[in-house]
């Protein structure tokens, strides 16, 4: 199959000031697009042609894994945000966050800390296991918790391309501002 890049569910400038229109433009139209284009090229003749993207991520290696996972991660990342979503978790997810991390504030701090302490490029994740337990994990480059049997709920991209135009080397500031645009209704649907 040919994997298509979904349209963003908001305008380029909709996430300002947390993420500038210029960064969304480069990140979505150049970086995300390149991963999907590479995926479509590399999957030819790989034996994985008819698989759902999640299955490719679970089974592929090397460049195919890297581009498949980066395609998935970026689509997931951009769909987590909205200019007018709900800014706090509610219901079962709010309860699970409190039970696991102490409070929503403690969770946000632990999540940003995990992103800041990741050396080099990668992603920080909130995921659940099959029993509904929550985990914060960090992974380098194209890592994705799907390969560990976890279900991703939320991710922040900590590659420099995600924030350098707006924040230069200030990764902690860049990640902290993302709480202003996370749509917890979307995150809860994944829980
Ligand atoms: Mn990225």
Number of strands: 3
Helix content: 40-55%
What number is the mean pLDDT? Answer: 97
- Distance between termini? 28 Å
Sum up the overall morphology in one term: globular
Residue fraction in strands: 5-15%
Task: Identify the bound ligands.
Answer: manganese (II) ion
Q: Find the structural class using helix and strand composition.
A: mainly alpha
| Rounded Rg | 16 Å
Order of strands, widest sheet? 2-1-3
SSE arrangement, N to C:
HHHHHEEEHHH
Low-confidence stretches: none
User: How can the largest sheet be summarized?
Assistant: 3 strands, antiparallel
* Count of helical regions: 8
Report on the structure:
With 191 residues, this protein is mainly alpha-helical. Helix content is 47%, strand content 11%. The chain contains eight helices and three strands; from the N terminus they run H-H-H-H-H-E-E-E-H-H-H. It has helices at 21-42, 53-59, 62-79, 91-101, 104-116, 164-167, 171-177, 184-190, and strands spanning 122-128, 134-140, 151-157. A three-stranded antiparallel β-sheet has the order 2-1-3, with helices on both faces. Helix 2 (53-59) crosses helix 3 and helix 4 (91-101) crosses helix 5. The longest helix has 22 residues, at 21-42. It is globular. The two termini are 28 Å apart. The mean pLDDT is 97. Bound molecules: manganese (II) ion.
In short:
The chain is mainly alpha-helical. It has helices spanning 21-42, 53-59, 62-79, 91-101, 104-116, 164-167, 171-177, 184-190; strands spanning 122-128, 134-140, 151-157. Residues 27, 31, 74, 157, 159, 161-162 line the site of manganese (II) ion.
């Amino acid at each position: 199959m040919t994997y298509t890049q979904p349209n963003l569910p908001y305008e380029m400038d909709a996430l300002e000031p947390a993420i500038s229109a210029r960064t969304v433009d480069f990140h979505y139209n150049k970086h995300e697009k390149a991963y999907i284009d590479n995926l479509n090229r590399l999957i030819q003749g790989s034996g994985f042609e008819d698989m759902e993207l999640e299955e490719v991520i679970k089974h592929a290696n090397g460049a195919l894994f890297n581009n498949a996972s980066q395609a998935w991660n970026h689509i997931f990342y951009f769909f987590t945000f909205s200019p007018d979503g709900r800014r706090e978790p509610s219901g079962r997810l709010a309860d699970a966050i409190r039970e696991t991390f102490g409070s929503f504030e403690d969770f946000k701090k632990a999540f940003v800390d995990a992103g800041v302490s990741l050396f080099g490029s990668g992603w920080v994740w909130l995921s659940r296991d099959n029993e509904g337990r929550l985990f914060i994990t960090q992974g380098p480059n194209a890592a994705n918790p799907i390969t560990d049997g976890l279900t991703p709920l939320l991710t922040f991209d900590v590659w420099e391309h995600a924030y350098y135009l707006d924040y230069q080397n200030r990764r902690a500031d860049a990640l902290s501002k993302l709480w202003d645009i996370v749509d917890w209704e979307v995150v809860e649907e994944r829980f």
